[in-house]
Design a protein that fits this description.
3-stranded antiparallel sheet; binds nicotinamide-adenine-dinucleotide; binds zinc ion; 355 residues; Rossmann fold; alpha/beta; Dehydroquinate synthase-like, alpha domain; 2 domains; 7-stranded mixed sheet
Length: 355
């Protein structure tokens, strides 16, 4: 049977602005002229090998080095070669957030922009980075250049996601909790109730749809990050980014700690009531992170290093201030510019930074 566009669109979730994502059990049949760029780690999985064999493809090594501007010329040359005879190539990125950021960037510059499909292979990319159209490359520091590139489709393939080691799910849990805190509603309670007993992969799998819907609700209002509304997605990321670099933590684990810091500060500033605080607190008593929490608090940062790393934050506003996301309640983020000094003092008070 030939490929039909109608068939392809069946069952897809359409959202405002024609952003489209779909959760499915197994890999989709791709449209003609698709070229697959995938994380080579996936080559070890039989079901993936079988599927990818039907398309022209290029394997890359996933991770931050793929996003390095220095590796870009060599990788884009390979993609140019693969696509040179195609009239209208479609780039399909299969991998974690690094592959998504890299392939997304390529799709926005190849032939001045060609269609892009994401098939995320990590939980973090499935709930977060594959959605929202941001791409990025690293130039000396992380994510220094990038584009907005709306994917044509995002396919979430359960067979692929559920084949990951449990550790990868724990790494993404911080982002899931962030979305539950930002979005609020009934699913916050459900996550909270499930947390004490459930494994990370169960939580990710069970609340995948809710977390993605929550992200789209936010980005739809400010897709190009003009009004600033989209910036609430940065909840937990101010301290999170600092800890990610200083303690070499996985992104989602660092974000989890950043969330806690933000919740505590929101209480201290009286943005958050005691009642709401108590509800949120149970989110942070999960055994999943106890060990890394203790380790990070044992190796406190020096104020100097903390301020240096903070200076690299892209959410800086004029001068020595930073756009910080507090919580006024569950589902009620609140952005407020704080000085570096007040942030330093609060991190010292909470025990993340040495006095
Ligand atoms: N564009 C955005 O909006 C956005 C948002 C959040 C994060 N990001 C970016 O995403 C990246 C982090 O994402 P990530 O954690 O997915 O990173 P990643 O792509 O580096 O993947 C992490 C590791 O998992 C391996 N891996 C991938 N799929 C696997 C699978 N199915 N089974 C086993 N191992 C697998 C990779 O080879 C890699 O070693 C960062 O570069 C970050 O900047 C982008
Ligand atoms: Zn994040």
């Amino acid at each position: 049977m030939g490929w039909s566009f109608q068939e392809f669109l069946k069952d897809l979730f359409f959202l405002k602005g024609s952003l489209v994502w779909q959760i499915r059990q197994s890999f989709p049949k791709l449209p003609p002229s698709s070229v697959v760029i995938y994380d080579r780690i996936l080559g070890r999985k039989n079901f993936f090998q079988k599927w990818v064999a039907s398309y022209p493809s290029h394997a890359v090594r996933g991770g931050e080095s793929l996003k390095s501007i220095d590796a870009f010329p060599q990788n884009i040359r390979k993609i140019l070669k693969l696509t040179q005879d195609l009239e209208k190539p479609i780039l399909v990125g299969v991998g974690g957030g690094s592959v998504g950021d890299f392939v997304g960037f390529c799709a926005s510059v190849l032939r001045r922009g060609c269609p892009l499909i994401h098939i995320p292979s990590t939980w973090l990319s499935a709930i977060d980075s594959a959605h929202g159209g941001k791409t990025a490359l690293n130039v000396d520091a992380k994510n220094q250049i990038g584009t907005f590139k709306k994917p044509l489709k995002v396919f979430l393939v359960r067979e692929l996601l559920e084949s990951q080691p449990e550790r990868r799910a724990a790494e993404a849990l911080g982002e899931l909790l962030k979305m539950a805190l930002l979005d609020g509603g009934g699913w916050f309670e459900k996550v909270r109730n499930a947390l004490p007993e459930a494994s990370s992969s169960f939580l990710l799998s069970r609340f995948l749809r809710e977390a993605i819907q929550g992200k789209y609700r936010i980005i739809e209002k400010d897709y190009l990050e003009i009004s600033g509304g989209r910036r609430v997605l940065n909840l937990g990321h101010t301290l999170g980014h600092v800890l990610e670099v200083s303690h070499s933590l996985p992104h989602g684990v660092a974000v989890y700690m950043g969330l806690w810091m933000s919740v505590e500060w929101s209480l201290q500033k009286k943005f958050l009531s005691q009642r709401e605080y108590k509800k949120v607190r149970s989110f942070f008593q999960t055994r999943i992170f106890q060990k890394s929490f203790k380790e990070v608090q044992k190796r406190k940062l020096s104020p100097r290093k903390f301020l240096f790393l903070l200076g690299k934050d892209k959410k800086r506003v004029k001068g020595q201030k930073i756009d910080f996301v507090f919580l006024k309640g569950i589902g009620r983020p609140y952005r407020y510019a704080v000085s570096f000094l007040s942030l330093l003092k609060e991190c010292q008070r909470q025990g993340w930074v040495k006095e």
